[in-house]
Amino acid sequence: MESNQNTDLKYYIETxxxxxNEEDSEKLSGMLKxxxxxxxxxxxxxxxxxxxxxxxxxxxxxxxxxxxGALKKLxxxxxxxxxxxxxxxxxxKGMADKILxxxxxxxxxxxxxxxxxxxxxxxxxxxxxxxxxxxFDKETEIIEGIPVDRESSLKAFVTIxxxxxxxxxxxxxxxxxxxxRSRKSEDIINEIKELVSKGYKEITLLGQNVxxxxxxxxxxxxxxxxxRMINEIKGLERVRFMTSHPKDLDFDVxxxxxxxxxxxxxxxxxxxxxxxxxxxxxxxxxDREQYLDIIKKIKSEIPDxxxxxxxxxxxxxxxxxxxxxxxxxxxxxxxDSAFTFIYSRRNHTPADKMENQIPDDVxxxxxxxxxxxxxxxxxxxxxxxxxxxxxxxxEGFSKNDSTKLSGRTRTGKLVNxxxxxxxxxxxxxxxxxxxxxxxLIGEII
Length: 445
Ligand code: 5AD
Ligand code: SF4
Hints:
Elements: E1 10-15, H1 19-34, E2 38-39, E3 48-53, H2 58-77, E4 82-87, H3 95-102, E5 108-110, H4 118-128, E6 132-134, E7 155-159, E8 161-162, H5 173-177, E9 181-182, H6 185-197, E10 202-206, H7 223-231, E11 238-242, H8 251-259, E12 266-268, H9 276-281, H10 288-301, E13 306-313, H11 320-333, E14 337-342, H12 360-383, E15 389-397, E16 404-409, E17 414-418, E18 427-435, E19 440-444
Parallel strand pairs: 1-2, 1-3, 3-4, 4-5, 5-6, 7-10, 10-11, 12-13, 13-14, 17-19
Antiparallel strand pairs: 8-9, 15-16, 15-18, 16-17, 18-19
Helix pairs in contact: 7-8, 11-12
The protein binds 5'-deoxyadenosine and iron/sulfur cluster.
Iron/sulfur cluster binds next to helix 5.
């Protein structure tokens, strides 16, 4: 119904940060669509611009400031433009006031715990012309039933728990996302069943620490029980989950992956550092040896499993020896992929107050070495796929080469191959001809 679209009703959302934020944005978008708004990908066209922010690292914050500054011109051109800003950054003490001072033309500010109130705020701004700043310090009960406007029609994220209780010393997440709380299994199962009825084939269960799923619920349920229940849903093809904390990964989860056909052979297990001294300072509650034991067990129980991780370089006090321990761990594990980060000081976290902060040039040098080591492992891991037949869920035509279809294996590897549109949305068997550094080239068999 393009012709009926009213330009006053167009909104633009930009999202920084993790999948959790992506999912929140899908809900914000879902709520706006329910009250009659249309999404646009152009800021110039929009009458509402919403920034969903991240504060896990400083550079994510800087990008938000830059983008907010750039909106001044648009606001001058269109006095009715409504600018909203929400997400993790807003939960930080003093941040909302800082933003209002620097960017007084912002109309709505809210945090991670009250995003369900966005339509109400919007209504008030439009009808009363007020500026709104409302941030809840604490998490609320989980609000169910918020409509979700999903990016893909094949793959969906489903949050199973919110918040984090771990307080790793570098991390702001527990401060901005609140304490751990799990959704009832019934709500999760119903959401997935509904997705399947709409044609979704793959879901990724999200939580900061999925292995503590179920704690605090009235029902007596563990994460592996939930996985087994989800595996029973007819029509669903693939289930992934993230993130697992090495201190909490129980072997009944590994057993579940072995037993359940829909659970993909893929585990995201952030190690953060290979040095026991640094792991202790990070408050991670496992050591290098325990981590490597878990990896060994996973690899021996689940053949061809893909293991990914998160790693930080330049944590306070990290010596060359500590960093070399990280490099040697990376070599030993041979990750299928890794998110690598330069330590970023975050206000109010214990690590920010630690002495021996590492100079930027050392951090960057270590980062480059780490990326190199990770890439060697990734290329080796991909090579193992050559001449093998893999199951691929076809997502569409490749962004880089529109003559090829593109999809992922159960282990999350990107595969490109020749084929026509009729394969989109289907599971196909593909023979891998060649491994490239970050993707595989194959042919349908
Ligand atoms: N600096 C750098 N990386 C961080 N992460 C979390 N906090 C910080 C920080 N202050 C990384 C961790 C985490 C991932 C989501 O972000 O590796 O697993
Ligand atoms: Fe942050 Fe640690 Fe919680 Fe992950 S487990 S969100 S790194 S505090």
